[in-house]
Amino acid sequence: MQDNQKGRKAAGPSETQNADLDAWKALATKELRGESLSALNIQSPEGVTIKPLYTKADTAGFAESLPGLAPFTRGPRATMFTHRPWTIRQYAGFSTAEESNAFYRKNLAAGQKGLSIAFDLATHRGYDSDHPRVRGDVGKAGVAIDSVEDMKILFDGIPLNEMSVSMTMNGAVLPIMAFYIVAAEEQGVALHQLSGTIQNDILKEYMVRNTYIYPPEPSMRIVGDIIEYSTKNMPKFNSISISGYHMQEAGADSALELAYTIADGLEYVKTALARGLDVDDFAPRLSFFFAVGMNFYMEIAKLRAARFLWNDVMQAFNPKNPQSSMLRTHCQTSGYSLTEKDPYNNVVRTTIEAMAAVFGGTQSLHTNSLDEAISLPSESAARIARNTQLIIQEETDICQTVDPFGGSYFMESLTADLVTKARSIMKEVQELGGMVHAINKGIPKLRIEESAAKKQARVDSGKDVIIGVNKYKNSSGTDSVEIRDVDNSAVRESQISRLNDVKKRRNSQAVTTALSALNIAASSGKGNLLELSVIAARHRATLGEISEALAESFGRHKAKVQSISSVYASAFGGPNMIESIRLRATEFAKKSGRRPRILVCKLGQDGHDRGAKVIATGLADLGFDVDIGPMFQTPEEAAKEAVENDVHVVGVSSQAAGHKTLVPDLIAALKKLGGEHIRIVIGGIIPSQDYEFLKKAGCSAIFGPGTPIPECAETILSFLEGKVS
Amino acid sequence: MNTDVDKLVTQIRQGSRIGLSRSITLLESTRADHRKKSEELLSILLPETGKAIRIAISGPPGVGKSSFIEALGMLLVGQTKKVAVLAIDPSSPITGGSILGDKARMEELSKSDLSFIRPSPSSGVLGGVARHTRETLLLCEAAGFDVILIETVGIGQSEVMAASMTDIFVQLHQPFSGDELQGIKKGVMELADLIVVTKADGDSFTAAEVAKNELERAVMLTRTCEGNIPKVLLTSAHKNTGISEVWTAITSLVEARNDSGSLAQKRREQSRQWLDQEIATELLSLLNSQPRFAEALEATQQRIEASGEHCGRAARALIKSLLAL
Are B103 and A620 in contact (CB < 8 Å)? Predict the structure, then answer.
């Protein structure tokens, strides 16, 4: 274009540009054979219009910036990956501390640079492995940790003064931090040497992930205590990882993820400031965590916009240190985008997502394994996932220049659009009185669920394409992948025997004293809870005991279950399929005297409720009567509810691998109450290896990840119709 | 489905959960044969009903009905009373489907062996919500429940319906700052036997106290000619305060009305209302069962559209011609 301008001296630059653009429009319209150019505009889920072409005019008002300098849009470091690549940090953990430890050591030897610990759901929710509510959860979706002794085994042979350790823990964050600190002490490592990250982001738990223990207010005190303690004692440790990841996994679009994450961050800054901490003492140790999904450009723009926005909002607190307003982030590729069908496609998806994270300028990255849609990563799948990053770093030229998208008309325009979208969502939060109030009112959760239902409808109707799932299906059957299965009753037994051993050998008087000090500090509001947890941990108080000592004063949080309706059907579009199922449901109601009625429930400590919520609203839109159970039900409680409501079907949503214990328990409990006629279906993350077992146990149908809701509805109607006499 | 009436009767008498729940399904069914069976079932069990305290809990969405019912219910099961909760969830007029989330909002109470919580969809019920709620209530009484709580969404008709089958009507209110009182409907205030201000804790405690004072003044004004002025009580389901005071107020009201005979009188009137409603329902279904009805209806409709005939007159003429009155 510049050459062109030189050639036509008579015309001014803008005039020339317009003339060229007109020529392009004419040419494009010709290529479209008369169809309007605007037909090529795409409306993104965030509400941004993506045009087929961007020009300089789209970046009017765009301010140049440089990497390492405010507003950090182009990256937090001056040299970025040209000097040192991002940290390959794979999230892992399962079964016992011994098994996870062996897995970590193997990975470190194979090129992984940092550890990222996944805990099981019992640990997340503050229960020891011997608690009756967690029978199906122990060792399943992460490693079981009950006391310091488990933590010491987990890091056996891994020097904590050298290894940076990231821990995904929010609910039982106090005992876990305390166990980590005491395990380091007993390795001979001083507190100030510890480096790594604790997730400690409780606010998003109330919106999406649901692994909280206490209500929001006392939980925010815990967050404050941890920031305060680590600011004073652990200068190399990130006291919080403000996470948007789980929002996207729960169905949020990129603008919602961005806005709520920044808004959460603001809330934590205010909490720390209220402790009398100086902004420059703690803000440089706040880190972030974003998901990177399949919308390649949008995700790059999201990371750039996040850095811009964080720098912007932090100015209100007058930081002197530029690092206080510099956003550093970890990224993980999207688990939601992975499919059970044609699982090898997942390697390609993860590669594209990893590249978006890299172009967006992440500081560390987890790439998902190809089997993560169905189970815990197997060893070979974990190797491919790790190699995906190593290939980008070492085989390609991707790391040879900083922010290659900088200055792109499209990218800079998209970044600016996302900033605008996020600001308007943040304004709503502000009007509700900040994130804690917004969460108490349930607004962010509803917005995310609405976004999730729309997304599901776009996939089910084929508007969003997923290769191998709703288009180009593999007709020769599913490639089977090797699965890692954890025998959770064996893990539970070994955990219980170690727990008993720990309890036998400790000074129980000292434990009681330490726990009562914690309890008093919880109710009086005085004292640092992490400091007191460390003392209790030294005396071998268990995770369950420390959590309970606090729960006695704080209480346990009860989720307010809200639901949305008719979002699914309206986003589905083409009404034919929906209409025909509604007719079938109505026909069923005429024949049997009432509509098909289903209880959608989650069993055990698995808090991932997006699937359950989306199914519930989808089935209601298709003409079912849908009961929603409380979170964290035991099989016995779900059976009582199913019998009282006299449902036709119980639909179990399982994301955390507890189904092989929980489903047979549910069937037994139904039988005990005389509800053996109630049918059971199960959906979620279920490896095909378990299908046979579940069918034998008595499941009428199994819906793998990505099953369209209309298909679920038709299957259910089919066997219910068969039963009507 | 199991439609063996004798078996269901036995199960209900034995306090079987599944027996009660299947019987409720039977009387909610739109099928005529189910309707017949459920009438048979109720006829057998009617002499065993009438022993529970029947309470309606009403209030606008967001006032905290479920939390209040959970707190009150937990207090009662703590006293080893058997508590049944009946809740009606609105069905979508477009899809016919509904989402029933009440139990998720009464998490603790739903776990208790002494509780029975049954949410019902509002659509597709023969004879309407009123009929099945009343009959469900009777079944729960026959099954030995001591207290029956009917949760109603605070929208006009449903409150009048709930009041027409309960002994005590509890009206819930949010804390407010004082000037919103004009928005409170006079008619609803007149139904209330007891007014409860919810969320009297933390930041909203002062607003709850203001609300209490304003509501107390308001009930004085609306109840000038009658002796029963409802008490206004402060509660917090979150802090579990004020709940036992509510129960004491309910039981003393029930006692006083038992002594004066006004409760028995009220139940007789309600029974009469029930009969009136059944007659209306039966008449309508009798009309519907007339083969010529659909035809005549269509003709009348066309006449109204063509000549602008008055609907009331047209209806009367139609019924007369069909029933040969």
Answer: no
